Write a sequence for this structure.
């Protein structure tokens, strides 16, 4: 069946902040000057799947008072992974979207620059272009499959028509559901464990490799 929807994870897949910070959440924590507190919370909650919501809400409160215009000043250009801009600049015959537990402020910019059709990310409340510290929408880090199935249904498609590009173990359920799962290696993770590779239909190190797979 022909692929009609290409969905990408964001942090570590489409973009990579490299050694400086691993996610859009961490990027904002540095801009806000609360990086140490962020790392402490992450270490405390990351592998506790039942408390992920508490982590996200607590972290969001750290950003209270941040002005939206300060973000592009601190991150003047999005650090795209290899081949991302080149691949998505070309005409394609399928929809493209982002499903990420990252932050919408970054995802909105990525989707606009890459001409994506949609994005589903955690949303931080803002009033008069200032963050209030409230999380008004959360994409669960360990249950993104639920969002994937909703997005596919809303578009009148079938999971067999979906290709999903990922980089970490929290995307495994999405990979199992999609027709094609492509592991991107080269963002925040250079050498994935073998058990993750076993779930991938393909492993790529540059998005331009997708031309041979999908185009």
């Amino acid at each position: 069946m022909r692929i009609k929807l290409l969905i990408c994870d964001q942090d570590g897949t489409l973009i990579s902040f490299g050694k400086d910070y691993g996610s859009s959440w961490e990027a904002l924590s540095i801009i806000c000057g609360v990086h140490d507190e962020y790392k402490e919370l992450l270490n405390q909650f990351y592998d506790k799947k039942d408390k992920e919501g508490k982590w996200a809400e607590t972290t969001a409160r750290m950003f209270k008072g941040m002005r939206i215009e300060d973000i592009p000043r601190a991150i003047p250009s999005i650090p795209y992974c290899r081949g991302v801009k080149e691949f998505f600049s070309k005409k394609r015959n399928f929809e493209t979207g982002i499903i990420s537990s990252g932050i919408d402020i970054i995802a909105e910019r990525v989707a606009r620059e890459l001409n994506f059709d949609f994005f589903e990310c955690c949303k931080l409340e803002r009033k008069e272009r200032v963050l209030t510290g409230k999380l008004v929408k959360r994409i669960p880090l360990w249950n993104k499959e639920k969002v994937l199935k909703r997005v596919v249904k809303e578009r009148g498609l079938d999971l067999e028509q979906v290709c999903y590009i990922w980089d970490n173990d929290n995307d495994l359920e999405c990979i199992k559901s999609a027709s094609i799962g492509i592991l991107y290696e080269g963002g925040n993770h250079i050498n994935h464990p073998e058990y993750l590779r076993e779930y991938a239909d393909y492993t790529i190190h540059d998005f331009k490799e997708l031309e041979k797979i999908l185009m």
User: Anything to note?
Assistant: Residues 72 and 119 are 19 Å apart (CA to CA).
